Amino acid sequence: MKTGVPYERVVDVQRRREEYSRAQMYYRCGLALASVATLLLVAMTLQNLLSTRGRSSSHSPVPSPRFHLPRAETCSDACRVVLVESIPEGLVFNSSIANPSIYQAWLNLIGEAHSTLDIASFYWTLTNKDTHTQEPTAHQGEDVLKRLAEVAEKLTVRIAVNEAHDKSTADLTLLTNSGANVRSVNMLKLTNGVLHTKFWIADKKHIFIGSPNMDWRSLTQVKELGAVVYNCSCLAEDLGKIFEAYWFLGQSGQQIPSPWPSTFSTAYNKETPLQLPLNGTQSSVYLSSSPPSLCAEGRTPDLQSILSVIGDANDFVYIAVMNYLPTLEFSRPKRYWAAIDTQLRQVAYERQIKVRMLISHWASTQPVMIPFLKSLASVQQDKNRLDIQVRLFVVPATPKQKEIPYARVNHNKYMVTDKIAYIGTSNWSGDYFLNTAGSALVVNQTGSQAQGPTVQSQLQAVFERDWNSAYSTPIDHAFQGNT
Ligand SMILES: *[C@@H]1O[C@H](CO)[C@@H](O)[C@H](O)[C@H]1NC(C)=O
Ligand SMILES: *[C@@H]1O[C@H](CO)[C@@H](O)[C@H](O)[C@H]1NC(C)=O
Ligand SMILES: *[C@@H]1O[C@H](CO)[C@@H](O)[C@H](O)[C@H]1NC(C)=O
Ligand SMILES: *[C@@H]1O[C@H](CO)[C@@H](O)[C@H](O)[C@H]1NC(C)=O
Ligand SMILES: *[C@@H]1O[C@H](CO)[C@@H](O)[C@H](O)[C@H]1NC(C)=O
């Protein structure tokens, strides 16, 4: 498969598309039938109750109509989820909380793939060559690139990448020459944004999603977090629809369809999440996506998912993101954008939710982030049980590590509440939700009696490890007086 896509595969894709739309049609018909049946049932139940108990019964066990609504299908795959991290060289925690590495997760996915591997990516710099360094810690990235090139000779490897990243050229030329299909998506032209998503899909069955770019530093010099879900074709198929949208837009001259054809639609969203077992625990899961123009019917936009997760918290909201700004970072003239900021202040004020924000500080931090974070951190008063706290996480660097460009930073993009784990790929400022392509995995296990750890409890442990570590400083202590 050195040259392009063989004819059979094109036909195969076409056939699969048709199957999808047929499945979609059956699903819709099923939905319609089920709705009619539900209405009848509800009507009968109501009539029964009304005639036997009268209208005044205040504790009547009328089943909520929602109970009967057809749920999106459940999934019987024995999905296994693992949180994975990159911990920068030299960073040491006084804690037993440790997760497998992202490097290992990527090797596992490469090893598990027998027919297809799809990767959505921002840019590619997996070797020392690209940064003109001689870093021994580039070895892991170089190994990933080598193995990807090997599998590209045997399997269908598709890579969607943001257009106009010259530095991606060397890696992508190698992969293309090995047989990978690469499409660059011109998000600048399409939405005035970039393709910033980072996920993998192996054999339409195993997935990875998280903060790391296809960059050797993401494995050894930058702090990253992601999730890998094995043996989970239902979730992988849904993530595949987001990939197919990038793949479609990667054709030259392509416009964003409006509406998107139904093959891109999903039944799984914040209202009707996918029901599946994760490590044996029944879970509600969905994938959100941004910007809204890339969301086909049924897809929850990423901003809506963040706002609803914050709004659904009962006790706390912990947020760990690299950048947090209530603005459009890249817009000129400047624009204020406070959707998330307002939601945080609102839950803190109205419902006394504890908000903790762990934000990164490094050489490239925009100074304007600091006063906005201080403003949030000033929402703090015992009497009214106002409790928002902000800490800055700094990844220390030796003089030698300081020479590595764009490294030594906490690049995490996740949120954990007392109920939900949210693992995303976006910085938290307006641009990432309005123009830039990103996506997130939202896991809700509150409905079930979990045996052992949940994704939520594991992510909470990661947050608390970092929050309580010597690398975090309350923002008031970090910047006394002027910034
Ligand atoms: C997927 O499930 C199969 C069958 O249970 C199992 O043999 C295999 O090891 C699993 N793969 C992964 C990556 O967990
Ligand atoms: C996140 O924000 C930083 C600073 O603006 C930017 O350099 C980076 O490209 C953004 N995206 C990534 C890679 O997470
Ligand atoms: C999580 O699941 C519970 C019960 O299954 C549901 O009531 C709640 O709305 C869900 N939360 C979110 C943010 O989806
Ligand atoms: C799921 O199981 C794997 C081992 O198969 C384990 O590494 C991981 O921590 C478990 N995840 C959760 C959320 O329990
Ligand atoms: C670990 O604990 C020691 C002793 O309490 C402390 O000096 C050090 O700063 C801690 N390191 C981290 C990374 O938290």
Automatic annotation (TrEMBL):
<keyword id="KW-1133">Transmembrane helix</keyword>
<dbReference type="InterPro" id="IPR001736">
    <property type="entry name" value="PLipase_D/transphosphatidylase"/>
</dbReference>
<dbReference type="GO" id="GO:0043202">
    <property type="term" value="C:lysosomal lumen"/>
</dbReference>
<dbReference type="GO" id="GO:0004527">
    <property type="term" value="F:exonuclease activity"/>
</dbReference>
<dbReference type="InterPro" id="IPR050874">
    <property type="entry name" value="Diverse_PLD-related"/>
</dbReference>
<keyword id="KW-0472">Membrane</keyword>
<dbReference type="GO" id="GO:0031902">
    <property type="term" value="C:late endosome membrane"/>
</dbReference>
<feature type="domain" description="PLD phosphodiesterase">
    <location>
        <begin position="406"/>
        <end position="432"/>
    </location>
</feature>
<keyword id="KW-0269">Exonuclease</keyword>
<protein>
    <recommendedName>
        <fullName>5'-3' exonuclease PLD3</fullName>
        <ecNumber>3.1.16.1</ecNumber>
    </recommendedName>
</protein>
<keyword id="KW-0378">Hydrolase</keyword>
<keyword id="KW-0677">Repeat</keyword>
<dbReference type="Pfam" id="PF13918">
    <property type="entry name" value="PLDc_3"/>
</dbReference>
<feature type="domain" description="PLD phosphodiesterase">
    <location>
        <begin position="191"/>
        <end position="218"/>
    </location>
</feature>
<dbReference type="GO" id="GO:0031901">
    <property type="term" value="C:early endosome membrane"/>
</dbReference>
<keyword id="KW-0812">Transmembrane</keyword>
<feature type="transmembrane region" description="Helical">
    <location>
        <begin position="25"/>
        <end position="46"/>
    </location>
</feature>
<dbReference type="InterPro" id="IPR032803">
    <property type="entry name" value="PLDc_3"/>
</dbReference>
<comment type="similarity">
    <text>Belongs to the phospholipase D family.</text>
</comment>
<keyword id="KW-0540">Nuclease</keyword>
